[in-house]
């Protein structure tokens, strides 16, 4: 091969290498544009920081939304209002004169205004360490022992705090947990939660409970039952709430 041919071959190789580098740069530039377009596309979605349910739509199409709403009322501060239904709890205002009787972990019962005949077992989760000067109350947060799908945000409720019964021992008075022992055969499952049927007059009333094992044939129930109440053991499958029954 002559020198001229060799020079032409080297020049052609350099040109091919340059085209490869140019094509590689074009590919990288295209990938960068795709990533930039993906970022712009993701900005068209509004994602909540937690999984939950939308309670209210705060803004309509065409309205301006900003994290800091304007004082003129033309700018909304939120698009929707959401709630995590797995963390629903009751906020109760307890009078300052009675808050000393309440403690964290204390048993409680919650009655929804929508279901006045059913008691939901609960416990005190937190006593907020501050008071409302105007109302002279302390905020107490009460958590459900087991959530029920019928419980919805902003529902009206009544909360009853269950005082720990006192038993006497050789060393004096000691507090024992408020609990009732019942046969394991009295437990049923309804709507994904543990329930028992209590005889009230001539009716079988269903109540939600939170059972804990106690031996082989019995369980301890905290909340939902009071000592001395009659429960139905081995209830028939067709038994429903408020069904008429006869005690033999």
Concise account of the structure shown:
The protein is of the alpha+beta class. The protein has one helix spanning 3-42, and strands at 53-57, 64-65, 75-76, 80-83, 89-95, 107-112, 115-132, 137-144, 157-161, 166-169, 172-175, 180-183, 188-190, 193-200, 203-208, 211-214, 218-221, 243-244. The strands form 6 sheets. Strands 5-8-7-6-9 form a 5-stranded antiparallel sheet, with no helix packed on it.
Describe the structure.
The protein is elongated, with a radius of gyration of 33 Å. The strands form six sheets. A five-stranded antiparallel beta sheet has the order 5-8-7-6-9, with no helix packed on it. Strand 14 and strand 15 form a beta hairpin. The N and C termini lie far apart (117 Å). It is built from one helix and 18 strands. It is an alpha+beta fold. The longest helix is centred in the N-terminal third of the chain and has 40 residues.
Helix content: 10-25%
Strand percentage lies at: 35-45%
Number of strands: 18
Indicate the radius of gyration in whole angstroms: 33 Å
What strand order characterises the main sheet?
5-8-7-6-9
How would the global form be characterised?
elongated
* Average pLDDT number: 81
How far apart lie the N and C ends? 117 Å
Q: Give the SSE string.
A: HEEEEEEEEEEEEEEEEEE
- What is the number of helices? 1
Helix/strand-derived category reads alpha+beta
Major pleated sheet: 5 strands, antiparallel
Low-confidence stretches: none
């Amino acid at each position: 091969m002559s020198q001229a041919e060799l020079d032409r071959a080297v020049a052609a190789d350099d040109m091919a290498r340059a085209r490869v580098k140019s094509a590689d740069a074009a590919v990288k530039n295209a990938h960068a544009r795709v990533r930039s377009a993906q970022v712009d596309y993701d900005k068209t979605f509004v994602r909540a920081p937690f999984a939950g349910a939308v309670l209210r739509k705060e803004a309509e199409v065409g309205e301006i939304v900003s994290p800091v709403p304007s004082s003129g009322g033309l700018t909304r501060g939120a698009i929707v209002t959401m709630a995590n239904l797995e963390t629903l709890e009751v906020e109760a205002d307890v009078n300052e004169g009675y808050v000393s009787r309440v403690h964290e972990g204390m048993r409680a019962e919650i009655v929804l205004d929508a279901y006045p005949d059913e008691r939901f077992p609960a416990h005190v989760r937190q006593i907020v360490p501050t008071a409302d000067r105007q109302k002279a109350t302390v905020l107490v947060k009460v958590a459900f022992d087991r959530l029920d799908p019928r419980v919805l945000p902003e529902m009206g409720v009544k909360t009853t705090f269950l005082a720990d019964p006192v038993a006497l021992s050789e060393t004096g008075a000691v507090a024992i947990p408020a609990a009732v022992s019942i046969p394991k055969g009295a437990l049923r499952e309804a709507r994904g939660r543990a329930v028992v049927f209590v005889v009230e007059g001539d009716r079988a009333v269903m109540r939600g409970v939170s059972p804990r094992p106690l031996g082989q044939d019995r369980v301890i129930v905290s909340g939902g039952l009071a000592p001395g109440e009659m429960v139905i053991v081995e209830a028939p499958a067709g038994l429903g709430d408020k069904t008429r029954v006869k005690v033999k």
